[in-house]
Amino acid sequence: MGSFFSQIKVNESLIRDAPIPVATLNSECEFLSSSRMFLKEHGITIENIIDKNFFDVLPSFPPAFKEILDRCLLGNSCQNEGKKYLLQDGRNVWLKWKINPWTKEDGSVGGLVIVLENITDHKNIDELVKEAQEVARTGGWQLNLLTYKAQWTKMVNIIHEMPLDYVPQTFDECFVHFKEGRHRDLILKATHEAIENGTPWDEEVIMITGTGKELWIRTKGRAEFVDGKCVRIYGICQDIDPYKRPQLAYREAAEKLKSAISASNVGTWEYDLNTGHTIWDDINFELHDIDKENYTGSLYRNWKKSLHPDDIKRVHNEVVSYYNGNGSGVLEYRVLLPNNSVRNIKASVTILTGPKNNKFRALGICQDITNEKNTEIKLKKFAEITGEQNNSLTNFAHMVSHDLRSHSTNLSVLTSLIEDEKDPEERKQILEMLKSATNSLNSTVYNLNEVVQSTDTNIQSKLTQINILKAITTVQNNIGTLFQEKKGICMLDVDPDYSVHVVPAYLDSVLLNLFTNSLKYCATTRSPIIKICTTLIDKKVQLTFEDNGKGIDMAKFGKNIFGMNKTFHRNKDARGVGLYITKNQIEAMGGTITVTSEVNVGTKFTINFQTI
Amino acid sequence: MNPFIKKIYFVDDDPIFVFISKKLMKEEKFTESIAEFEHGKQAIEALIECDQQNELLPTVIFLDLSMPVMSGWEFLDSFQAAPIENKEQIKIIVMSSSINPLEIDMIKNYPVVHDYIVKPITPADLNKIKVCLVNESQA
């Protein structure tokens, strides 16, 4: 006995410093000795545990552990690499132990030698790692190049959809799982590189699973060298299929969008409202004629600088207004190009709003709409011309109807009157009137004819060179009787060498109209004097036709003087339509006519002719 | 039987139309006297003169629209503005050869215009005016 206890005593000090958590118990499960590591391992703070019961010292130990101790006290050894116990307070505890009974000299069990570790923390980490592997769907593998044996974790088989105990039997078998072609070649090459040069790899490839499915995985591998020779390659295998496919789909869509955008010549941009950070695509740079590689200052500033000066203020106001929640976010502006031409841009803006209703980013697209704009302008012009023509046609139709009606009315009433009239004096008077009404109708029809002809579009071919002095004197002679009747005088200051490029009949008509107007509307108190002068202005002949007649109240009639808006008057007052025709004829020949006049002083027409 | 209407104004610059209209009125015994004017200015001046001299105002004014110097439109404007006593009793009949709907619309904007006649004047037109005046005097 004595020797045993002395032995224990010696052992006690040995045990105290043992580098493992070890303790000895007697058959009553009371501590005989323990290592410092044992105390530390189990957080025992009681100073002296000798002779104290195991469960008194470690009250939080699971009671189930007592069964193990009891069984060992029957003479059995017991070993466990890790067992999980649920404690009363709900915590988990992992224990790892090795227990041997020790025997007294008589062979009976004297107690136990326990090596006991609390591996809860390790186990938790292990579990975490396992869970992490599952969540990340990442498995590990290694290939021993000395034995050509492969090893991999269960997760690799789960990913591969292979039986959980599957392990490739040969080196080559490791590679058959990769999709034949580009993917398998890539991995073979990467493996080769790693073994030869130690280059690690990190690739995304398609593999074929045990059920024949294609699956995107990420594979990482590196090599281990001993004495310059590769002995092992190892790495991970991760299932990236769930995000790789959407990523590829997105990339494809983005690629499509990009080509669509570049094909449609739409520029895109983004502007961070907080930082001012701006992103433009190449087309946007092109559209605004800004050199992508070579600009200074902020893009916003450069954009503003590219605007047509007349548009800057309006565009700025529209942008501010849209930022404040008004307007559609679509604006049009012009970009001034170096050759002074203009590019029309249509820009659409969207402002992105954050969860707290805070605006944080503006993005938009820009489109070149120059062609559309030009077409629109052309169309508008056409519409205007058509509208004007339509207007003047309607006016014309009403005037024709008015004038023809008034004559025909008179004619028909007069003819019915003359039938019933017996008095020869009356009959004579009615006949006079019939004659005058017929003349009026005739002159109206003549005027209408002139109007129609002066709007003839095919005029250029009829233009010829005419000596202006000759034309004037011819017309003057034709109305010689009217001159005599009115006692009119004509003073000419016309260069005999001047020729004008005109339609001869038009020129005659214009001159005739001006002459008759001047004579008809002469002042009652003085004889009519007509002055006609020609001068050269910018190598073009200008003719002035001036009289001393009644004149026209320009303030009242100025704007309508050449117009057809005021009905042209049926009988003696054919002035309205006359001037309308004159203006039409002159303009048809490429010239212009203007008028100045003063009541009771006279009227002066200025005509600019086209010359070659 | 003496005509019911004592005095009318006839404002038109077309002598032929004035001639045939007068002839018709004579046959229809429409009025005792007709004062002729070539344009609106003459007519409005005569009206004001009449009013100042306390002479009899015309019962009806036949008014052409397109005339030199002062058109029918300008006459209507002047008439509306002129300080003539009892002028609302004068019936203004606008006459035109035009069948322009725009013109007819514009005439509707002048409440002083009693009626619109498309030339020529017919016996029925005159009769209609007469009936209207008789009814008014009996009312």
Automatic annotation (TrEMBL), chain A:
Gene3D superfamilies: 1.10.287.130, Histidine kinase-like ATPase, C-terminal domain, PAS domain. Residues 399-612 form the Histidine kinase domain. Keywords: Kinase, Phosphoprotein, Transferase. It comes from the Bacteria. It is an enzyme of class 2 (transferase). CDD domains: HisKA, PAS. InterPro entries: HATPase_C_sf (IPR036890), HATPase_dom (IPR003594), His_kinase_dom (IPR005467), HisK_dim/P_dom (IPR003661), HisK_dim/P_sf (IPR036097), PAC (IPR001610), PAS (IPR000014), PAS-assoc_C (IPR000700). Pfam families: HATPase_c, PAS_3, PAS_4, PAS_9. It catalyses: ATP + protein L-histidine = ADP + protein N-phospho-L-histidine. Its EC number is 2.7.13.3. PROSITE patterns: HIS_KIN, PAC. Signal peptide: none annotated. GO terms for molecular function: phosphorelay sensor kinase activity. PANTHER family: PAC DOMAIN-CONTAINING PROTEIN (PTHR43304:SF1), PHYTOCHROME-LIKE PROTEIN CPH1 (PTHR43304). This is histidine kinase. It comes from Cellulophaga baltica.
From TrEMBL, chain B:
The modification 4-aspartylphosphate is found at D64. The keyword Nucleotide-binding does not apply. It comes from Cellulophaga baltica 18. One of its GO terms (biological process) is phosphorelay signal transduction system. PANTHER family: RESPONSE REGULATOR RCP1, RESPONSE REGULATOR RCP1-RELATED. This is Response regulatory domain-containing protein. The keyword Glycoprotein does not apply. SUPFAM superfamilies: CheY-like (SSF52172). Keywords: Phosphoprotein. SMART domains: REC (SM00448). Pfam families: Response_reg. InterPro entries: CheY-like_superfamily, Sig_transdc_resp-reg_receiver, TCS_response_regulator. Residues 7-134 form the Response regulatory domain. It comes from the Bacteria.
